[in-house]
Amino acid sequence: MKCDDIKALYDDFKTELLGSEELSAVNKHIGSCNDCNNYYLENNKLSKLLDNWEEIEPQNNYVSKFWNKIDETELNSNKGVLGFFKGIKTAFVVPSLAVALFCSLLIVNMYRTSTTSPTSDEDARDNIFLLEINDIISVEGYESLKIYGLWYDLEEEPKEG
Amino acid sequence: MESDIDLILRVKSGDDSAFSEILKRYYNKILNYVYRYTNNRETSEDLTQEIFMRVHRSVKNYRPEAKFSTWLYKIATNLCLTEVATRAKKYASSLDEVQQNVGSLEDEKSVDQLHVRYRSEIKKMIFDAMNTLSEKERSAIMLCKYEQLSYDEVAQTLDCTVGAVKTYVYRGRMKLIDKLKPYLAEVEIDEM
Ligand SMILES: [Zn+2]
User: Fold this and answer.
1) How distant is the Cα of A105 from the closest Cα of chain B, in angstroms?
2) For chain A, what is the domain count?
3) Among chain B residues, CA nearest to A65
4) Who has the most CB within 10 Å: A78, B1, B17, B68?
5) Residue B69 maps to which CATH number?
6) In 3-state terms, what secondary structure has residue A2?
7) Are residues B45 and A58, on separate chains, in Cβ contact within 8 Å?
8) What is the domain extent for residue A150?
């Protein structure tokens, strides 16, 4: 095995996860290679040094403290929801009603406009006039009026004469 | 002893006593894990409470395919790294904490004061050396060394491959050896 392979096995060596063959290969290598021997030695020292970082003990009441916090959070979130609706009631109820009334009037008006006859008396008179022209116009007259664009139904060609 | 998964299933069905059992099982571990990121007892207590509140809130999302402890460490790591990043400046001057610890321990007459000072100094040096590592290197070393998680569990916690974990640990250790050289010279090794 190469030096890099031996170094890569350090953790497995430390945690005794190496198989007997690998273990003897590592032991043989670090016995004869200064660089790898030094690597294993320094890592062992580091591991021992890091053990100096001792643990701390939790406060005695950590469980009850936790449940108190949960209760507080739930209480605050309930307050939040109630407060939201309360705010809506006082600050938005009048403008909301005004907007709703305006919208309904608008909708009713639009409905009425769409269902009533689109033609006024003037439009009706124009229609009758155009139909009369259509009935009396000659082919020549029709040809001469063509420059103004079509104004009759294409299915209904003006009568000859 | 009831398994973690059984406890979580009870929590999911609304049994708060099962969550208290989870707290008793993991609070101390997580507190110390957090402590190694902050080096501040009070902050660690607050953060640990916050971590368990998050766990409690999101326990419905936990799926038993992942080991509960791995899921827990994942939440803890994310929160610690976020907190450490936002409060980096505050923690950088955490010498106060060391002084505070010395003070409280020195009150105990039986403790050798010099020894306590030396240990506090070393603790501060380790903390500072850890701060020079990248987030992944630091977390990988903490999880392997102090939490004794397997490479596979660390990989799940840090969302990376086992190969990447090995690299983080290797690089991290090399940096620590470099930073802590003066202290390593004083460490005596009994056997190889
Ligand atoms: Zn070698």
Assistant:
1) 47
2) 2
3) B49
4) B68
5) 1.10.1740.10
6) coil
7) yes
8) 123-161
What is the spatial distance between Cα B151 and Cα B30, in angstroms, rounded to a whole number? 19
A106 lies in a domain?
no
Its ipTM equals 0.82
Four-CA torsion A105, A106, A107, A109, nearest 10 degrees: 80
Min CA distance, B123 vs chain A (Å)? 5
The pLDDT tens digits of the residues spanning B19-71 come to 999 999 999 999 999 999 999 999 999 999 999 999 999 998 888 888 999 99
Report the separation in Å between the CA atom of A34 and the middle of ligand 1, taken as the mean of its atom positions.
7
- B42 inside domain: yes
Q: Which long-range contacts (CB under 8 A, 24 or more apart) does A19-28 make?
A: A25/A1, A26/A1
Contact B133, A46 (CB under 8 A): no
pTM: 0.69
Residue A121 has pLDDT above 80, yes or no: no
Write the DSSP symbol of residue B1.
-
Per-residue pLDDT of chain B (192 residues; tens, 9 = 90+): 899 999 999 999 999 999 999 999 999 999 999 999 999 999 999 999 999 999 999 998 888 888 999 999 999 999 999 988 887 655 455 544 554 554 444 444 555 677 777 778 888 999 999 999 999 999 999 999 999 999 999 999 999 999 999 999 999 999 999 999 999 998 888 766
CB-defined contacts A:B, below 8 A: 86
Tokens 């939440």, residue located: B75
B55 within domain boundaries: yes
Q: Do residue B184 and residue A57 have CB atoms under 8 angstroms apart?
A: no
On chain A, the residues whose CB falls within 8 A of the CB of B41 are 56
